[in-house]
Amino acid sequence: MTTPPTKGHLYTPIAHVRGGRAEATKDGWGPNRSRIELCDPRLGPDSLLGLDQVSHIEVVFHFHVDEQEPVETGARHPRHRADWPRVGIFAQRARMRPNRIGLSICRVLGVSGTTIEVEGLDAVDGTPVLDIKPVWSATLPRGELREPAWAQALMANYW
Predict the structure, then answer these.
(1) Against a cut of 0.85, is the pTM above it?
(2) What is the pLDDT of residue 1?
């Protein structure tokens, strides 16, 4: 038995990405520098207190670019490469996800007021940010990571 999706619960952005890239491109995100600027009136500088003590953050965001693009629910060849296997949407990190939620780990360069300066965030200028979490060693994967060769090839020039 499947449970139907919950209706009516919408997330409100707490911040937006400012600066960095204007267009979502496939590769070369490593040196991308941008800012995450809080926009939620409930969140002041105290919301970011202590964040300058971590090297990296996880940024949960909404893939807002090309929202008219059809949602993928099945399998496809990543980047339309027929030499890579067809895999389901949940076996890849594509933006055409059912809820269009993205997740990225980026380096914290600095924190000032309600702004976080970051490097390596693969989100474009204007991207709505839904949440920010510190990366702690205890939250990283435990044990050996396993991934297919096509994913390694896809990510070879991503950062």
Answers:
(1) yes
(2) 47
